C-alpha cells in the first residue's frame, strides 16, 4: 500500500487510479488549472465526465490550488498531464516534490533541441527540477492501454520502466491486478521512444479509411487493409530505427512498448481521425484550424517535433537522407500541407 | 514478359494474375481437380466466382486435365494451392515441371516430422520432386496481401523471396506495378516462417470480439483493443522466436513478412471468425464440426502442426518449456478443446 498523488486528471491518469485503488493504495487525484470542471464533477458525484465513469470511491479529488496538501505525504507522484504540459508539469514538480519520492510519468512524446537532438519526456521533466531531479526516482508506464478499457477492467498488459529495477518492481506490485498485467524494464529510453513513435505512425492508420471514403468505397467488399498493413510494417521498422538511434534496446520494439502499443493506437482515437481527413484529401491546415479545431492531437504534435528533428539530424549528417522516409512524409503532410502521396518505393530500405 | 502457369485457381493465385497480366505476361490459370466450377465460370464469362471479379482478359483458364499443355512452355510455375494440398502439388510438379523453370510458391504453412522438426512448405514441395528439385529455381511471395484488395488494384506491398537474389529480382520486375510494390529477399526461411506464424496468431484476433459478444458488450463505449494489442505483441515476439529457431533472419519479423502480414491477417477472415467463436466460449470441436463445418482454416491447421511440434521439441530439449506460451495455449484450444483462458503472466518472457 502506498500514497499516490496524481498530477492531472485526464482520462489516462484517472484510469490508472482504478487498479491502484483496487489494491488499496491511497490516491489523491489533482486536477491541473485546466481540469476544474473534471474535479467539480468528481467532487460532486464521483463521475469523471470525459471517461464517463465513476472513479473508485477511495480516490480523493483535489483542485490544483490544493496540490501542495495532496502531494506532501505521497510516496509516488504520477505526472499525468498531456505532452503539451510537460514543461509546466516539471515546474510544478520542482516546487511540489520532495527527495525520496518516485516520479511516475505517463505522458508520451519527445522534445528536440534547436540542433535536432531529441529527448524523452522524463528527461524534460528532470531538466525543470534542478538538483531535485537526482533526489527522486524516475519511472514511466508504457504499453497498449486505452484508458476507458482499463477503467472498466478489461484486460490490459503494460510495462513499467524505471531507471532502477527495484523501483519498477515496487511500482508494479502496487498496480498489478488480475486485469492489469505489469512487466518491468530498465530500458527507459527504448520504451519512451517506442511510445512516442507509435503515436506518430498511428496517424497513418486513418489514411486508408479516408481514401476509401473519398472514393465512395468504404462499404465495398474489398477495403484497404493491405495499405494499412504496409504502413504498419514501415512504422514498426522506423520505430525500431529511432529506438536504436536514441540508444534504447531494439527488443522493446516487438513487444508491448513497440508494435503492441502501435497496434492499439492504430485502432482509433483522435490522431487516427485526423489521419482519416488526410486520406479524404483535406489539407492538414484545414484539419487543424477547422475540422478538428481545438482538439488535442498528441500524435500530430510528435510528428512535428520528430519530423523537424529528423531534417536537422540529416543536415548534420547524424542520419542519412534515406532514413525515416515515413516520418518525413508525415511531417510534410502536417507541417507543409503536402497531399497524401506516400513514397512507397523508399520504404523498407528502398524497393528493389 | 514471361509465360506464367498458375497451378490452383483459388482467390490468391487468381488475384496475382492481375498485376502479372497488367505487365503483359502470358498467364495460364489451371484449376485443380477441386476447381472445376471456378474454371467453368472463367471459361464462360471471365468471372472468378469466389473473388467476385472478372479475371484479366489475357488470362487463359485450364481444367486440371489440360495442365500439361498449360505448363509446358512456362517460364514460371506458380504453386497456388492451399496448405492442405502442398504434397499433392509437389507430386504434380514432379510430373509437370521441366529443368530451368522457376517454381513460385504462395502457400503459407509448415509441416513437421514425427520428431517435431519443422519444414517450410517450399521444402515440402521440393521433397516431392526428386532430382528435379535441384534443376528448377525456387521463389515465394510473402507479405500483407488480401487477394481481393490486390485484384481491385488497391495498394499492396509484398516481398518476393528466392534462393537466388537474381531470381527474386527477375520475378519482381515481372509483377511490379504502381499498385503492387515488390521488395526482394533471399531470406527464404525467415519470410516463410513469418507467414506461417502470422496465420497462427491471427486466430487470436477473434478472441476479444467474441468475448465482448458473449458479454453483450460488443457495442459498448469501451471494447477490448488492449487485449488484442497484448496478444499481437506476444504474437510478434513468438513469431520472431520461431524465425530465429528455424534459422531465418530476425529482421524479417518487423517488416512486411512479419508484423505487417500479421496486422492484415488479424483484421479479418475465416481464422479470425473461428477465433471469435472461441471468444464466445464455443469448444473448438464444435466450431470445427458444426459452426464452421467444411470451412478451410489454414491458420488453425498451422496451430495444429506447430503446436504439436513445439511440444515434441520441448520433450527433446530443443526448446524450453517456457518458450512459445501463446502457441501452446492456442494448440490446447484447437487440439484439446481447452477453454479460452490465456496464461498472460507467462507472456513476454514472464510477468515480473
From TrEMBL, chains A, B:
Gene3D superfamilies, per the entry: N-(1-d-carboxylethyl)-l-norvaline Dehydrogenase, domain 2, NAD(P)-binding Rossmann-like Domain
Source species, domain of life: Bacteria
Catalytic reaction(s) noted: sn-glycerol 3-phosphate + NADP(+) = dihydroxyacetone phosphate + NADPH + H(+)
Gene Ontology CC, one term: cytosol
Signal peptide boundaries: 1-20
Tagged with keyword Lipid metabolism: yes
Enzyme Commission designation: 1.1.1.94
Domain Glycerol-3-phosphate dehydrogenase NAD-dependent N-terminal: 3-167
Residues annotated for NAD(+) binding in this entry: 147, 270
Glycerol-3-phosphate dehydrogenase NAD-dependent C-terminal domain boundaries: 187-339
Active site positions, chain numbering: 198 (proton acceptor)
InterPro entries according to UniProt: 6-PGluconate_DH-like_C_sf (IPR008927), 6PGD_dom2 (IPR013328), G3P_DH_NAD-dep (IPR006168), G3P_DH_NAD-dep_C (IPR006109), G3P_DH_NAD-dep_N (IPR011128), NAD(P)-bd_dom_sf (IPR036291)
Keywords (A to Z) from UniProt: Lipid biosynthesis, Lipid metabolism, NAD, Oxidoreductase, Phospholipid biosynthesis, Phospholipid metabolism, Signal
PANTHER family to which the protein is assigned, alphabetical: GLYCEROL-3-PHOSPHATE DEHYDROGENASE, GLYCEROL-3-PHOSPHATE DEHYDROGENASE [NAD(+)] 2, CHLOROPLASTIC
Protein name according to UniProt: Glycerol-3-phosphate dehydrogenase
Originating species: Acidipropionibacterium jensenii
Amino acid at each position: 500500500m502506498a500514497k499516490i498523488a496524481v498530477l492531472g486528471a485526464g482520462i489516462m491518469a484517472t484510469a490508472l487510479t482504478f487498479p491502484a485503488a483496487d489494491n488499496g493504495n491511497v490516491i489523491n487525484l489533482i486536477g491541473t488549472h485546466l481540469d476544474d470542471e473534471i474535479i467539480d464533477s468528481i467532487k460532486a458525484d464521483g463521475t469523471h465526465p470525459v471517461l464517463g465513469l465513476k472513479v473508485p470511491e477511495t480516490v480523493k479529488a483535489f483542485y490544483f490550488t490544493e496540490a501542495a496538501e495532496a502531494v506532501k505525504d505521497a510516496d509516488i507522484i504520477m505526472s499525468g498531464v498531456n505532452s503539451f504540459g510537460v514543461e509546466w508539469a516539471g515546474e510544478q514538480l520542482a516546487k511540489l516534490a520532495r527527495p525520496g519520492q518516485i516520479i511516475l510519468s505517463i505522458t508520451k512524446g519527445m522534445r528536440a533541441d534547436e540542433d535536432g537532438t531529441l529527448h524523452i519526456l522524463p528527461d524534460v521533466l528532470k531538466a525543470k527540477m534542478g538538483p531535485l531531479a537526482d533526489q527522486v526516482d524516475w519511472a514511466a508506464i508504457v504499453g497498449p492501454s486505452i484508458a476507458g478499457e482499463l477503467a472498466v477492467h478489461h484486460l490490459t498488459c503494460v510495462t513499467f520502466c524505471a531507471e532502477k529495477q527495484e523501483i519498477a518492481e515496487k511500482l508494479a506490485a502496487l498496480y498489478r491486478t488480475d486485469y492489469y498485467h505489469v512487466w518491468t524494464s530498465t530500458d527507459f529510453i527504448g520504451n519512451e521512444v517506442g511510445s512516442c513513435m507509435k503515436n506518430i505512425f498511428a496517424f497513418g492508420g486513418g489514411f486508408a479509411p479516408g481514401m476509401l471514403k473519398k472514393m465512395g468505397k468504404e462499404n465495398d467488399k474489398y477495403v484497404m487493409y493491405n495499405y494499412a498493413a504496409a504502413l504498419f510494417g514501415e512504422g514498426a521498422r522506423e520505430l525500431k530505427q529511432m529506438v536504436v538511434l536514441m540508444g534504447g534496446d531494439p527488443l522493446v520494439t516487438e513487444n508491448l512498448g513497440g508494435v503492441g502499443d502501435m497496434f492499439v493506437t492504430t485502432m482509433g482515437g483522435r490522431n487516427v481521425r485526423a489521419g482519416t481527413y488526410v486520406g479524404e484529401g483535406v489539407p492538414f491546415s484545414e484539419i487543424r484550424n477547422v475540422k478538428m479545431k481545438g482538439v488535442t492531437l498528441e500524435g500530430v504534435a510528435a510528428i512535428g517535433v520528430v519530423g523537424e528533428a529528423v531534417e536537422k539530424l540529416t543536415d548534420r549528417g547524424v542520419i542519412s537522407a534515406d532514413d525515416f522516409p515515413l516520418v518525413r512524409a508525415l511531417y510534410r503532410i502536417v507541417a507543409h500541407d503536402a497531399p497524401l502521396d506516400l513514397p512507397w518505393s523508399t520504404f523498407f530500405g528502398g524497393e528493389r
